[in-house]
């Protein structure tokens, strides 16, 4: 289950990854600029959202969507103890890490939207999931 605070934290983590990739590979800034702008808007939207947290699913089912097998799992950028993501060593792997982050964000937002079932939070999370899916597809095409 994902509250607006958790959704905000997930968006901020993706922004940290995008920023770290741009610092390591400045040539990717053009490719990642739209994705970064979208996540900044999502962060601003979530920061000002006054939505109730979703109610727990009585069945306890927290299953999400199936895992995305098209992203290289070794390309993920895990955060360091300080919270800064570690950027993979190559440009392609770094871009794949951003794609993996978009896919994870899509799954997280989709699961939360399904758990919320109805109302403004469900609609907001579904829109965030759709945007993450779109960015994932666009970035795959750029790699």
Give an account of the 3D structure.
- The protein has 143 residues and is an all-alpha fold.
- The chain has one domain: Ferritin (Up-down Bundle).
- Helices cover 63% and strands 0% of the residues.
- The protein has 4 helices and no strands.
- The protein has helices at residues 4-24, 29-48, 91-116, 120-142.
- Helix 2 (29-48) runs antiparallel to helix 4 (120-142).
- It is elongated and about 40 Å long.
- The N and C termini lie far apart (32 Å).
- The model is unreliable at 60-76 (pLDDT under 50).
Q: Which architecture per CATH?
A: Up-down Bundle
Proportion of residues in extended strands: under 5%
Percent of residues in helices: 55-70%
Q: How many structural domains does the protein architecture include?
A: 1
Structural class call reads mainly alpha
Give the overall shape.
elongated
Q: Largest sheet, described in full? A: none
Q: What is the helix/strand order?
A: HHHH
End-to-end CA span: 32 Å
Mean pLDDT across the residues is: 81
Helix segment count?
A: 4
**What is the total tally of β strands?**
0
């Amino acid at each position: 289950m994902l509250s607006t605070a958790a959704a905000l934290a997930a968006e901020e983590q993706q922004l940290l990854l995008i920023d770290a990739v741009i610092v390591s590979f400045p040539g990717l800034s053009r490719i990642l600029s739209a994705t970064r702008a979208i996540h900044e808007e999502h962060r601003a939207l979530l920061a000002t959202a006054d939505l109730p947290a979703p109610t727990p699913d009585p069945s306890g089912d927290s299953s999400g969507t199936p895992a995305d097998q098209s992203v290289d799992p070794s390309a993920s950028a895990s955060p360091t103890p300080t919270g800064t993501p570690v950027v993979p060593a190559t440009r392609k792997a770094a871009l794949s890490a951003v794609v993996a982050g978009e896919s994870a964000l899509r799954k997280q937002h989709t699961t939360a939207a399904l758990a919320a079932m109805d109302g403004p939070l469900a609609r907001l999370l579904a829109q965030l999931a759709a945007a993450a899916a779109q960015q994932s597809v666009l970035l795959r095409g750029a790699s």
